[in-house]
Amino acid sequence: MRTRNSLFKDLIGLALIGVFLYLFFFIDFKDLSLNIPGSWLNVNTIFLSIVIEAVPFILLGVFASALIQTFVSEETIKKFLPKNAIAAIIPAAVLGVIFPVCECAIIPVVRRLIKKGLPVHVGVVLLVGAPILNPVVVASTYYAFNGDPTILYGRFGLAFVLSIVIGFLMLLLFDNKNQLRWTKSELQGKQDPMLEQPVIQNKWKATFYHASDEFFVMGKYLIAGAFIASLFQTFLDRSILIALGQNEVLSPAVMMAFAYVLSLCSEADAFVAASFGSTFTTGSLLAFLIYGPMLDLKNTVMMFAFFRTKFVLVFMAVVTIVVFASILIFQQLVL
């Protein structure tokens, strides 16, 4: 039954893609004499520009992530980390630079590592650092902001330092005590179905399977985020937008909330952030680019499923306070 439902959903998805491609290539909407308001045409223009620019980086990111998921084992990752709790924090942040794993895939990976003996706080460093520090995100951010050094170095410099700070704070608060939430199936000695991966013998076939699955998961968040951003740009009163965007205290908080709700993939969030470049401060754009990959709505749901409630609530508070405070300090010292 489950296979039949999955096949049915895949067929619907392919049919919708076919309809879209047919309309895109063979239908000239100008000939339909539709009286579409200029504001909605502007929404369409902004939306398409964000999506078209972001899709290549999502494709690159999902394939890189799928290759790591298929060919790199958790044991290999653990070999790079020292046994000492404090000494392992910085190498964990460096490891995040090497492995392009997005925030959608990092939580199950970190949970598996913790189950195999990785200290919780080291897992937290990977959790908040890897989705931002990886080379695919560096490339997408560089392209989205035309190589703006303040955004580029600010995002990755702050992310590297803050991942270490957050990991150290979680070590102080929880002292490496077990914080995993064990599922009923695990207590019965079975594999957790949420972490269970399809058994595919051919590794390249498995890579394409994971990449396609991850692409469609990310794609829906990108489309939603691009659409909401285009609506904001078009319909929100420009004076209100400017007033919010130029306030050095309020604008980072607004953009952090925006990042949390949108739950964008880190390979694509720079393009949405860049669409606000003319109205929001550099500090608030950095808040959006740093906070979103570390903590968003979809990841919160996953964390509550995998970790204890107290741990998740403290993690959310620590990440929010540390990111917001660091942005305020960065604005005063650098911008």
Automatic annotation (TrEMBL):
Primary site of residence: membrane
Compartment(s) of residence: Cell membrane
Mitochondrion as UniProt keyword: no
Transmembrane stretches, start-end: 7-27, 47-72, 84-110, 122-145, 152-174, 215-236, 248-264, 270-291, 311-334
Recorded topology in the membrane: Multi-pass membrane protein
Keyword field: Cell membrane, Membrane, Transmembrane, Transmembrane helix
InterPro entries on file: DUF318 (IPR005524), UPF0718 (IPR052923)
A Pfam cross-reference name: ArsP_1
Family from the record: Belongs to the UPF0718 family.
Protein name: Two-component membrane permease complex subunit SMU_747c
